Amino acid sequence: MRGNPMEFKAKFFAEKLKTVNPLGTVGVATLWSPVEKVHEKLGRAGVDMEPETSPVAVLGNLYGEGFRYLLRNLLYNPRIDTLIVFGKSLNDSRLYIPNFFQKGVEKYEEEIEYLPTENGTVPSPVKIVGTSYVMDDLVLPESFARPPEILMAEPYGEEGAEKIKDFLVNYRPRPTVADRVFVEVPQVRVSTFPSDLSAHVVAADSPTETWKLLVHRIFRFGKRVQLRKGERIELRNLKAIVRKPANETDETIRAAGFDPDDFRKYQKDILSSDKKNFDYTYGNRIRAHFGPDCLDEAVEQLKAGHDDRKAFLTLWDNTTDMTGAHSPCLVTLFFRNAEDSLHLTATYRTHNAAKAWLENIYGLMAIQQYAAEKADLAIAPITVISHSITLDPMYLEKSSSIHDEIANSAMFNHDPNGYFRISANGEEIVAVHYSPKGIRLEEYRGKKPGTIKQKIYRNSAVSDINHAMYIGMELQKAYQSIMDGTEYMQDDGTRS
Questions:
Q1: pTM of the predicted model, to two decimals?
Q2: Angstrom distance (rounded) from CA 124 to CA 108
């Protein structure tokens, strides 16, 4: 027997939908609730869910990119005249359906680039009014010959299920007024990944290793901005730490694409007070522009052993730099004696990541070495805070190769917050936290991994993502050993 030409047929995610009655005219959006659980809940409430008689055609989730696929399935199945929203919402997804059809969409200003469709159409991003949901503009409210009726069955639970039951008692399907319409789903060209643009931190032992991590981070997470000098890819307030600042071999510098002779000259020039007919030089700003030699003044503060933290100098001159044609990018230096070691923190107003950052670090190492020798202190990490650090798109090929090198490398960092020893005593999981030097800090106990995870998270006991994932796997293994009655042995390939 041939099927009804207008029976429900999913064009997208058919395997994730639950079809009840293909000839039904009602769809149920379960939001973040599992489809099978919603199906069972409606059945227990007395809603007709029989394949031959139910008015419900299909149930489906609405998380991830689900909404734009739902719209396309609706256009391809114009027989569906009613949408019921019934499920748990962990974000504003409960508003997607009513707001789309009742309030419409608005232009989305953030940069999202869609690839052209097969027919050459280039979609634009839009946002559903009153929500955070961003989608392409190939399907709009006016794409529907007749918008579906919407029932918000809230709250999720018995009360909401009872509303659905009562609604369907008096429900009558409306005549189908449109033919099937297929709209393809455009793919997004991902040029940047979501993150907090002002919260990135990278750290490595050597200058070049740190630089590569920094370029990788901007390449992956930077946002394209239009500056007076052209388009750039930017992060804000990026913090980079060179743990063991020291000059590297010429081969290492050349392999990174730089000339070691240029770096040596830069280190010499940054300690010189001579402006050399330039509007400014860093050396002049540090050692002559404001009158005294501020670098030597900082050294005297360090030698005196005062802990008043006044070994701080600025290169920015408010009387000229706010309006001047040329203003320094390096704006402050802060020297800190901690345990007879000299820490240096530098802030840059703007920073060129591909061309200047690594050379700048070599200049900072020269300044730190000068001050450390004068004050008889050991060398400690250098921290660089870049208020606006950018990549020029013309260097994307070089940046891409660095990104690929980092992304494909087997990286392991010891978590500075310490490590964990995890065990299972047959009834509960025990996770003991130790400092990097092996000092016992705290003990966490719980019958389930989630309990311990929450305690570790609240105490900020883990700072490295790889470490956190490892602990999660070990907690689950310990829990499974308790459930199976077997012995648990922590993976000891490396300290957790």
A1: 0.69
A2: 8
